[in-house]
Amino acid sequence: MQYTKYCYARIVNVLKKSNVIVKYWFSYRFRESGINI
Question: Which branch of life, at top level (predicted)?
Fold first, then answer.
C-alpha cells in the first residue's frame, strides 16, 4: 500500500512538472476515455 502511494505521488509530481504540450495530451487522452478532469 505504501509503495502504491509512493508511485502515485511520483506520477503526480512528474505530471506537475510536465510541459504544456504533455499536459494537453494527457487531458485529451482523459477526455477520450470519458474521464472529466
Answer: Bacteria
